[in-house]
Amino acid sequence: MELVNRTEISEFFLKGFSGHPALEHLLFPLCSTMYLVTLLGNTAIVAVSILDVRLHTPMYFFLGNLSILDICYTSTFVPLMLVHLLSAQKTISFIGCAIQMCLSLATGSTECLLLAIMAYDRYLAICRPLRYPVLMSPRLCLLLVATAWVLCLVKSVTETVIAMRLPFCGHHVVSHFTCEILAVLKLACSDTSVSEAFLLVGAILLLPIPLAFICLSYTLILATVLRVPSAAGRRKAFSTCSAHLAVVMLFYGTVIFMYMKPKSKETRISDEAFTVLYAVVTPMLNPVIYSLRNKEVKEAARKVWGRSWTSK
């Protein structure tokens, strides 16, 4: 019977903002612009960090990976969301929904770990400057990033398989603009406790624990910076770290609101608005925050831009 109930669903209807036509007309140009800025800004950071040898350091290696994650994350659902904002046919196939769910979970989860890795990198660079080149070797950088990607992919595949194997008994209207796992679980007509338990464990491992690690790292960084006798040295350290802290607060604040708040059966419009905030706005702001607050990135961008025009 469970198999029959499951095969009744061949596609899902993504309700999204369909009950608010005026909001859809407003969101399309806004989200299109933000997605374009996200692609251009993050691609520029990746290109600059590769082309300028002065940026071949652990900090910019991690920043480049963060930019790649932002591009992948937003691309899992924003293009389809833009199509649905202009169309009355807001459907996605069962397989497409599962793939979208898995990829968005994997990239979002990896970003949580990567932000913690970046905090650790800043801690070593500021608090252990003499041993930093040895402690944060290229091999360790690759190992940290690869481990984060692999662990989060395995976690996301497991959560997706458990969620999509549940019987939906013909319920196919997802009260969201993407196949967000919490919204899909609300359609299940059987016990979802196993899936919810996996999500809770994952949320604890990827939200409060990395956030506590980040807070500890920056507490130690602050204590070290305040002991620096040079005012210029303190300003440089604060400038480097403030960009990362701004990204951390924006990303973790909105994600914790979504995944650690009490669950309700009905999805409110505020939930979708917060999803837009952390899933569309944050990836757009990341390159802006890092480039505006980072003198090295701006100088490297000018150098690469000037070289490209000279070659023409």
TrEMBL record:
One Pfam family, please name it. 7tm_4
One GO MF term, please? olfactory receptor activity
Which CDD domains did the record assign?
7tmA_OR13-like
Gene3D superfamilies per UniProt: Rhodopsin 7-helix transmembrane proteins
Cited InterPro entries: GPCR_Rhodpsn (IPR000276), GPCR_Rhodpsn_7TM (IPR017452), Olfact_rcpt (IPR000725)
Q: Which domain of life is it from?
A: Eukaryota
Chain ranges of the G-protein coupled receptors family 1 profile domain: 41-290
Which residue spans traverse the membrane? 26-48, 60-86, 92-120, 140-158, 197-225, 237-260, 272-292
Location comes to: Cell membrane
Keyword Transmembrane helix assigned: yes
Q: Which UniProt keywords apply?
A: Cell membrane, G-protein coupled receptor, Membrane, Olfaction, Receptor, Sensory transduction, Transducer, Transmembrane, Transmembrane helix
Would you name any one GO CC term? plasma membrane
Membrane topology field: Multi-pass membrane protein
Record's function text: Putative odorant or sperm cell receptor.
Return the similarity comment.
Answer: Belongs to the G-protein coupled receptor 1 family.
- What's the name of the protein? Olfactory receptor
This protein's species is Ailuropoda melanoleuca (Giant panda)
Protein's gene: OR13J1
